[in-house]
Automatic annotation (TrEMBL):
Full protein: residues contained: 1 to 201 of 1141
Domain notes: Contains large globular domains required for ATP hydrolysis at each terminus and a third globular domain forming a flexible hinge near the middle of the molecule. These domains are separated by coiled-coil structures.
Binding site for ATP: P32, N33, G34, C35, G36, K37, S38, N39
Quaternary organization: Homodimer.
Its biological purpose: Required for chromosome condensation and partitioning.
Family the entry assigns: Belongs to the SMC family.
Gene: smc
Entry protein name: Chromosome partition protein Smc
Biological classification of the source: Bacteria, Pseudomonadati, Pseudomonadota, Alphaproteobacteria, Sphingomonadales
Length: 201
């Protein structure tokens, strides 16, 4: 999977719609203090399904919406879209070449909504899409300030999570949990069925 373009509007300091083309070879963003470098990286993690406001330096998820300045009123929503290029071998059910646009939008008082190519989807679908391609909101490939120190100081179990993400197998854990739940439900149904059959004999 390759990220081709980031579009954002109303997200943190990016009050006006902005677009960042991510060309091959781009590995870092530099600029003066406070210009929004970390906000760009956070926008990528947010659209990938980040669920923790704290890891986006906020108290609540609505803190990602432009909060206003002395001269500009706050916004009511924030929207971030990521154009991705899928490659065969990315894994998952939709293992195919082609481009997809993943969008997350948050409105004050209404929470987040996700779309893939304009189709409403769940957070889980978006997280799985990225996990299958060995990336995601917690991917070690997205290196924010202080992250290098965190990687060095990580506990073995945290390092294992990083390796699993890099290997593209972290999505399998979510699928396994789903499958186990379905299995348990089926076993309960079977037990109930056997009881009913027993009653009839
Ligand atoms: P540094 O190099 O100092 O780490 P940076 O370029 O990474 O800075 P960011 O941390 O991305 O900068 O951006 C900080 C700016 O974003 C601050 O001016 C802050 O006020 C602004 N900001 C953050 N959240 C919001 C919000 N919800 N609404 C408006 N502005 C915001």
């Amino acid at each position: 999977m390759r990220i081709r373009r980031l579009k954002l509007g109303g997200f943190k300091s990016f009050v006006e719609p902005a677009e960042l083309r991510i060309e091959p070879g781009l590995t870092g963003v530099v600029g003066p203090n406070g210009c929004g470098k970390s906000n760009l990286l956070e926008a990528i993690r947010w659209v990938m399904g980040e669920g923790s406001p704290k890891s986006l330096r906020g108290g609540g998820m609505e803190d990602v919406i432009f909060a206003g300045t002395a001269t500009r009123p706050p916004r009511d929503f924030a929207e971030v879209s990521l154009l991705i290029e899928r490659q065969a071998g990315d894994g998952g059910d939709e293992d195919a070449d082609g481009e997809s646009e993943v969008t997350r939008r948050i409105e004050r008082g209404a929470g987040s909504a996700y779309r893939i190519d304009g189709r409403d989807v769940r957070q889980k679908d978006v997280a799985l899409l990225f996990a299958d391609a060995a990336t995601g909101a917690h991917s070690p490939a997205l290196v924010s300030q202080g992250r290098i120190g965190a990687v060095i100081a990580a506990k073995p179990v945290e390092r294992r999570q990083m390796l699993e993400e890099a290997a593209g197998i972290s999505g399998l854990h979510a699928r396994r949990k789903d499958a186990e739940q379905k299995l348990r439900a089926t076993e309960t149904n079977l037990t109930r069925l056997n009881e009913l059959l027993g009653d009839q004999e």
